[in-house]
Amino acid sequence: xxxxxxxxxxxxxxxxxxxxxxxxxxxxxxxxxxxxxxxxxxxxxxxxxxxxxxxxxxxxxxxxxxxxxxxxxxxxxxxxxxxxxxxxxxxxxxxxxxxxxxxxxxxxxxxxxxxxxxxxxxxxxxxxxxxxxxxxxxxxxxxxxxxxxxxxxxxxxxxxxxxxxxxxxxxxxxxxxxxxxxxxxxxxxxxxxxxxxxxxxxxxxxxxxxxxxxxxxxxxxxxxxxxxxxxxxxxxx
Length: 237
Ligand SMILES: N[C@@H](CCC(=O)N[C@@H](CS)C(=O)NCC(=O)O)C(=O)O
Prior knowledge:
Layout: E1 24-28, H1 34-44, E2 48-52, H2 63-68, E3 76-78, E4 86-87, H3 89-99, H4 111-137, H5 149-171, H6 187-199, H7 204-207, H8 209-219, H9 222-231
Parallel strand pairs: 1-2
Antiparallel strand pairs: 1-3, 3-4
The chain binds glutathione.
């Protein structure tokens, strides 16, 4: 069970955990895609430190955070002895799962199953998150003219809806998790995306029954419940 977390975004040099040289530090924003990395870390049972960088408060674009991660995004993982943070959700969860392989079976040993994880991640992060939700919530990333932002967002919503239909179709073949071999690093990100679907008003329970069942399974996991509690998120299917 991890130790108590530092939930505030305090200057690192003044944080209470700076002498904990063997723990890693996750920079996260509640309910964002970093929640998936948080879940995988929590599943390891190893101690770690949390640093909140709330996107809604603009903290990801603060000079202090940009000095830590010039991309201005969460998640970012600080590793003992490593001068630069590790960024990009798939890289982070893969490293965590690989390093904790002895206790955590979230990265399949079979090469095809591992490739299926990569297949999911490339599409979910690049297309569904980057293009879909990026276009919906951050249209200015795609076109400068404010007059066109509403059109970009509307189009991106269509991208999300089509992608969600694809996800549901993939999950509806009787599998219990994203990759049929079992619970993997991909599943916590599907949990995040499911919640975002609810947030933007998609009728997830009606249109995505298989994905809803997967989400219910994930919500039963003690590690997932602890993470939702720590991030202050209430969520039921
Ligand atoms: N490709 C990155 C995307 C990370 C990302 O876009 N994170 C969002 C939160 S879900 C963020 O930090 N946004 C902050 C901002 O746009 O200022 C990954 O997979 O880690």
